[in-house]
Amino acid sequence: MKFAYLGPRGSFCSVVAEAAFKSEELYSYATILDVIEAYNEGECDFALVPIENSTEGTVNMSIDKIFHDSNAKVVAEFVLPISQNLLAVSKEQKIEHIYSHPQALAQRRVYLRKFYPQAQVEITESTSAAAEFVKNNPNLPAAAVANSFAAKMYDLEFIAENIQDLAGNSTRFWLLGKEKQSFDLNQTKDKVTLALTLPDNLPGALHKAISVFAWRDIDMTKIESRPLRTRLGQYFFIIDLENNATNSLKIPYALEELAGLGVNVRLLGNYSVYSLGEV
């Protein structure tokens, strides 16, 4: 089996990939769009992408690409507790530039403003790409925000550890494929994710759509809107449902009722959630 992930090696995505798909063929890609396109074009059997961070929220690029441009299903979810560090070639390194992925930088705003207010923030495609760049440019007065795995891989020194602004920071990753997958990891729960598009001529459409789950006591753990890319004010809604033994019997009836209301429902995935150790 071939697994595509957001690289390069040393990224949080690669940490998940190497933990979950130990004996499989792993292929890294430079961007989230490239990862999903690799799956769409049949270059791989599965694609692993970040979908949400507990501090910064949904990775919109992943959600939008999956909804608008892919028929892939979510076949598993992985939750990775994350600790970020400031890394450089040497502890004596002067730091005038700080490189990392936008979400990683956003999760460290307070720290960076306090200790490196004059440093120029530079965007990279991933945290591991930032670490690789700093390693390959030892004469540049720069540091990277990345994980300890990347520090070991690129032989960088820790300038500061655990620099995230909030404790308990975690990222969710979706594995995209065709059928639900299981892994020899700590399974925490099962979920169903739906994408809803509401009819224009139904007053209180969102309220009515949500009600089909509420009155059945189906636990809806997340709802979020994203632009439909048709015209201003048009959205689709991503909804996560807890899929326990009781809910699994009720959800099909809820979907039938949504269809009766004229709500377009797309099943993005019926999958298990796995928890990994902190890196």
Which H/E pattern describes the elements? EHEHEEHEEEHHEHEHEEEHEEHE
Structural class: alpha/beta
Beta-strand share of residues: 35-45%
Main beta sheet: strand number and arrangement?
10 strands, mixed
End-to-end distance, in Å? 26 Å
Kindly state the mean pLDDT as a whole number?
A: 92
Report the helical percentage: 25-40%
Molecular shape: elongated
Outline:
The protein has 279 residues and is α/β, with parallel strands linked by helices. Helix content is 29%, strand content 35%.
Layout of secondary structure:
Blueprint: E1 2-6, H1 12-20, E2 25-29, H2 32-40, E3 46-53, E4 57-58, H3 60-69, E5 73-81, E6 85-88, E7 97-100, H4 102-106, H5 109-115, E8 120-123, H6 127-136, E9 142-146, H7 148-153, E10 157-160, E11 170-177, E12 186-197, H8 205-214, E13 220-227, E14 235-242, H9 247-260, E15 264-275
